[in-house]
């Protein structure tokens, strides 16, 4: 892994991605963008940034994976079933589709979670094939982004750390604000932005 110094601040040392790295898009689905059941404000501003990261990884042939919340219609996390969330990301629905302005690369791996009606899966690793996929690919460092809730991101990061992965949270491509971000920093994940990865932004 190559380390590079962030010239602008002169302090953070962010590992640059290499062939043992993967980009993980956490739940970039319509229901988490404005207009969706659990849409975050300003979420559409993330789309060009996410696309820049996708381009950076796909150009190098580094793996890109996306998790998706993929619930049956009677999922236990929905309020009508006594759960905490409005109905969202129902299998096959428009809300469950990826945001249509995201430029998903061919061959991107899609990992479904939350498919068991009785269990919620906040982490992308819970009850999914994500850990196996990453192991098959020889991934050691995971770069993570997405409009998912604070809980989803945090649980995903914690599970990744437990598996011995290094996690870099791409904080200019997530939907959560400063305070929850501070809490997430206690998980051991590093935080980076596009400029740390030498991504010229905006790209076209
Ligand atoms: Zn869900």
Can you describe what's shown?
It is a single chain. The protein has 204 residues and is α/β, with parallel strands linked by helices. 22% of the residues lie in helices and 20% in strands. The chain has 4 helices and 8 strands. Strand 7, helix 4 and strand 8 form a beta-alpha-beta unit. The longest helix has 15 residues. About 3% of the residues have low confidence. Bound molecules: zinc ion.
Topology of this protein?
Elements: E1 3-5, E2 13-15, E3 21-26, H1 46-60, E4 64-69, E5 109-113, H2 130-137, E6 141-146, H3 150-162, E7 166-174, H4 178-185, E8 190-192
Parallel strand pairs: 3-4, 3-6, 4-5, 6-7, 7-8
Antiparallel strand pairs: 1-2
The protein binds zinc ion.
Radius of gyration: 16 Å
Most strands sheet: 6 strands, parallel
β-sheet strand percentage: 15-25%
Q: What is the chain-wise order of helices and strands?
A: EEEHEEHEHEHE
Ligands (ions, cofactors included): zinc ion
Q: Terminal Cα separation, in Å?
A: 28 Å
Q: What's the total number of strands?
A: 8
Structural class: alpha/beta
Shape estimate:
globular
Uncertain runs are 5-10
> What is the share of helical residues?
10-25%
Number of helices: 4
Averaged pLDDT, please? 90
What is the topology, as strand order, of the major beta sheet? 5-4-3-6-7-8
């Amino acid at each position: 892994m190559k380390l590079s110094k962030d010239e602008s601040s002169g302090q953070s040392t962010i590992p640059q991605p290499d062939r043992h790295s993967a980009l993980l898009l956490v739940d970039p689905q319509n229901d988490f963008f404005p207009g969706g059941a659990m849409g975050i404000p300003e979420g559409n501003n993330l789309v060009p940034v996410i696309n820049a990261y996708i381009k950076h990884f796909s150009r190098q042939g580094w793996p890109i994976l996306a998790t998706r919340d993929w619930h049956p219609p009677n999922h236990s996390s929905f309020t009508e079933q006594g759960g905490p969330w409005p109905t969202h990301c129902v299998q096959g629905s428009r809300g469950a589709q990826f945001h249509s302005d995201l430029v998903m690369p061919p061959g991107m791996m899609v990992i479904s979670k939350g498919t068991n009606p009785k269990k919620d899966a906040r982490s992308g690793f819970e009850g999914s094939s994500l850990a196996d996929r990453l192991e098959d690919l020889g991934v050691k460092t995971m770069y993570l982004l997405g409009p998912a809730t604070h809980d989803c991101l945090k649980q995903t990061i914690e599970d990744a750390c437990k598996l011995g992965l290094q996690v870099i949270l791409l904080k200019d491509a997530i939907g959560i604000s400063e305070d929850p971000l501070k809490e997430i920093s206690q998980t051991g994940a590093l935080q980076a932005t596009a400029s740390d990865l030498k991504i010229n932004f905006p790209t076209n």
